[in-house]
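Render DNA replication protein DnaC in 3D.
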Amino acid sequence: MEYSVESLQRQLHHLRMSETSKELPSFLRKAESHSWTYQEFLRELLSYEENRREEKMIEKHLKWAKFPYQKSLDEFDLKELPSLSKRQLRQLQELSWLDESFNLIFLGPPGVGKTHIAIGIGLEAIHKGHRVSFVSMGELIPLLKSEEYLRKSQLKMKRIREADLIIIDDLMYMAMDQNEANLFFHLINHLYERSSIILTSNKGPEEWGELIGDKGITTAILDRLLHRSEVVHFDGASHRIKYRESLFQAKSVQN
């Protein structure tokens, strides 16, 4: 049976290889001009489809992440952050801590690069196949409160709960009432040891109780967030929480 190029394109499209279907005429011309073997032709065709699918997946995950802007870690001047060494930054870029469900907590005043570093790590994670979700605390609380009856909030929260890495920006910039604190605790409890969390805040954990209000809920939230975490001050001093596991300390012992 003789197949036309158009019929082959339809078959590729039916097999959900639409990108390859569009480029098939070009591949056929290249195969003929370069005298490709069947294996070479098939390898080029499948490699193209694989690369395009990966690119489209990255595009989709970038859209889902909802970053307010995109800045890579290479764009950050590490000289401005003496509390984080080049070796430690490379360690964070490797993302092995994601598999261990480690959390990162960035503390410091506004404008020192906390969000930039968090987004840079998020971009690295997406390009390495991880699902990432970015949300500010000012957006998160209304989402939690409206999740029960708003479809848009349900979809956003579903993506947050299913993400491998959740970035919560400007944590504890405003006080919570009892209901908000409960909703936030249940989210953190759900994510505990399932996902990694990056938090940015201008207030240290010792101040969070004043904003959460309920001592019991505060303790429960801190217990889950700080159990396996690295806390870094963005004003030049490295911060360590007693009795918790430290990502950098654990790695240095192994090395």
